[in-house]
User: Fold this.
Amino acid sequence: MTETFQTAWDENGHLEVLTFDVGTEQLAIEATDIREIVDLLPETQVPGAAPLVASIVNYRGKIIPIADLRLAFGMAITPPTPDSRIVVIETQVDGEDTHIGLRTDKVHEVAVLARRDSSDPPQVGLRWRREFVREFVRHGDGVIVLPSLTAIFQANPRHSGRGAAHDRAFAHQTK
Assistant:
């Protein structure tokens, strides 16, 4: 379950994804990285944690961090709605497979996107950090953003300066 900075289109130029809303944007993550979609769970704030992953939840007896991609994309934080869900993904962080919950406003569907409908993020005029977006893909009447979770998680510090010992202790607790 590794995400690189490149999109892994299949030999036919297709990519199976889960589409979901964060704010007013529709994003998509590769279906192979999705472990489960769950209703919102009670969150525990982690003092000193980076704002992107400031809380944790008990997911099937395992403590996992919850990431709010609104912060990475400079969107306003909004309260949850009845459609809000947590999309649990498995991705590599520091070389280890890690479960992370992504807070979403609404989950749509599993869709197949076509490479021919995709384009790289523009060099200018993008309101987000360019490295946080792998590609834009036209789909239906809209555009889906394929975020680079690798770039987002690498760019956001894992803690607020407590040091490597704290990171190792927290990592041990979340395994």
